[in-house]
Amino acid sequence: MEFVVLLRQQGEGCDYTIGCGYKYIFIEAMDMDDALYQVRTKNRKDYEDGTKYIYSYRADELEEVTIIPITQKVDALHFMSEREKREAEEEKRRQEKGKEEDRKKEAEAREKQDREEYERLRNKFEGYN
């Protein structure tokens, strides 16, 4: 099961409007207890001076740790209106058509070069029969 862990340090960080002091981490765990265990132990560093760090935050500076289970992931297309979906599909078709046209142009350019090379060599060696 996948979880989102939100770590929030004390205070507002550098600027509350841009979310300094917040860190989102995605973890895999069997259940909520395992997720809590992982947060407490896996990315923890204990230093000789007694400071403890969890995911690069000093443990004593963390104000809140929130663990959220991800129960469902939804494809971004589910949030689009029917018109937006059609427009996205049409744009994808236009891009694919453009790629096909580019491939055709490249093939035509190669064929033109080959024909020019053929004519050049034919003219050069025509009298050597």
Q: Level of helix content?
A: 40-55%
Q: Count of DSSP helices?
A: 2
- By secondary-structure content and strand pairing, the structural class works out as alpha+beta
Q: What oligomerization state is this entry in?
A: single chain
Query: How many structural domains in the coordinates?
Result: 2
Number of strands: 6
Largest beta-sheet details: 3 strands, antiparallel
Show unreliable segments: none
Radius of gyration: 30 Å
Give me the side-by-side strand order of the main sheet: 2-1-6
Give an overview of the whole structure.
With 129 residues, the protein is of the alpha+beta class. The chain folds into 2 domains: 2-69, no CATH class; 76-125. It has helices spanning 32-41, 82-125, and strands at residues 2-9, 22-28, 44-46, 52-54, 57-58, 62-69. A 3-stranded antiparallel beta sheet has the order 2-1-6, with helices on one face. Strands 3-4-5 form a 3-stranded antiparallel beta sheet. The protein is elongated and about 95 Å long. It starts with a strand and ends with a helix. The mean pLDDT is 81.
Summarize the structure.
42% of the residues lie in helices and 24% in strands. It has 129 residues and is of the alpha+beta class.
List the helices and strands and how they pair.
Blueprint: E1 2-9, E2 22-28, H1 32-41, E3 44-46, E4 52-54, E5 57-58, E6 62-69, H2 82-125
Antiparallel strand pairs: 1-2, 1-6, 3-4, 4-5
